[in-house]
Amino acid sequence: MGKQIVLYKKRDFYRFKEEKESEGTSIVSLTRFIYNIDKIECYLPIDAIDISSLSGFPDKQSIAENVLDRFDDDNSFVCEEEKWSSMSYDLRYVFTEPVESFSEYLDYEEDDEKPNIPSGNNRTLTFYSNNEYSSLEALLHKKNFTIESISKYISQNELIELLEADSMIIDISCLTGYSSIQSVAEKVIYEFPNQVVYICDESRKAKLQYELRFLFNKFQGIHESHLIDSSDVLLSNEKLVEAKKHKLITDLPHDELKSFFTAFRERLYGHPKFKDDFEDLVNTFRVFNKIREHKILSLFLMGDSGVGKTEVARAIFNCLGGTKRLAKINFGNYSNEFSLSSLIGSARGYIGSDDGEIFMKVRDTDIGILLIDEFEKSNAALFNYFLDVLESGKMTNSLGEEMDLNGFIIIFTSNISKEDFPKRISPELRSRFDYKGMFTVLESQDKQKYLEFRAKSIIRKIALGKTEELESNLLDFFHKRIDVNKYHNMRDLNKDIKKIFVEFLSKSDLEK
Q: What is the DSSP letter of 420?
């Protein structure tokens, strides 16, 4: 005989919990035993162990076999259905009995989809409005409270022993930046003394309330809490994040749009089908953007490095007359657990800037286009963030402030194959992309055109107007030294163009 697991759907947890409590059974998260195995000896067998938090650990199998095997087979184990599906294989040697489902026997009315407020824990989470935070912070400091972000204790668990619990307020807003919220939060908060007070930005409530169901039994607003008195007044410090006026493709008059498409076709080498598709996409986008049904035009471009994916964004930027920098984010730098904070800004309590790279880049550009390069290298938290951006048409920073991207074009590029696309990108996010296309190596004639364009471009920048003879000489030199058919990556071709141009300079005395 082995252990058995009972599954519940996320929407059914509080009903499931209520039914268990009516039977005299409490549901306890496994996390508290993972970090303190000795507690298993004190465990009451009438309680049920919820193993959902295991999904947040990379080494699920070894943890499960080490911890769960210490429980008797008669003990009760439960898990959220969606999280079980991601780790059932890793736990195949622990749970050998047939899986049961609590949810499949339930009938639902429309109003039953929303969970009830949880009950049965011993902590309260208080939510504040980001508009009132500065006033709240000043008021609490006057009352000798210290506010700190939970982030420092996540990275340095040993600091928990040093905090002054009676005057400490922990802001947990930054937890939304973690892909495994439940396991990260439970690992730390179980270690805090009972006197610690917890607060959070109210814009994070929907995302955190369910994940923290084993930690908090009450969720309340700041005006309902003991932290402020009836005589205390919180002043609003509302701050709107204004995106500077960008030139948008939706704002172009018909004649300018026609000129844009002509210039774009000349600027982007190869990919004729994409050019046709892009023109159709833009025309459709402009119509439905005006009636507020389509806020952002999103393109997901796949293919090998150096085949022109990022050049699409540069071509759009230049053909719209961009004079500043193209807003570009390389997601190769955003693969770790803290990537969302780096992208949209640090949460309250962090040391450093409140602004993130993506907000700074969009503010500093003059054209309504955003390039997200190497998108597949990011993580689930970032995927979910852009799911919201494409749905709402707005970016939200760590303080809950919004930047309107209505009328923008966002281009996501990736080196993944067409076969890997559905494996790496969730169905929900895939459905949000307006265009999904595979870029292939340029044809020989397109590479030749690019070579000629680069020759003319370089000469115009260096020869101060005396270009005709030099262009002809440089093209002859390039044709003798460069076989475009050898190149599959246009970046490699461009590197050799630069190298051979320097040789041309030394032979033609152009430097003098």
A: T
- pLDDT, tens digit, 9 for 90 and up, residues 196-210: 999 999 888 888 988
| Same domain, yes or no: 58 and 87 | yes
Tell me: do 145 and 210 sit in the same domain. yes
pTM here is 0.53
- Domains of the chain: total: 4
Do residues 373 and 332 touch, judged by C-beta distance below 8 A? yes
Give the pairing of strands 402-404 and 394-396: antiparallel
User: Who has greater pLDDT, 146 or 483?
Assistant: 146
Q: Could you tell me the CA-to-CA distances from 222 to 8, 122, 134, 145, 231 in Å, in that order?
A: 32, 18, 13, 15, 14
The reported pLDDT for the residue numbered 101 is 87
| Residues 177, 262 within the same domain | no
Residue 269 and residue 398 share a domain: yes
Phi/psi for 213 (5° steps) reads -65, -25
Tens of pLDDT along 311-340? 999 999 999 999 999 999 988 777 665 677
Residue with tokens 């966002």: 410
Residue 238, domain member (yes or no): no
383: buried, middle or exposed (CB in 10 Å: 19+, 13-18, 0-12)?
middle
CA proximity to 55, closest of 13, 83, 91, 27? 83
Residue 198's domain comprises 124-224
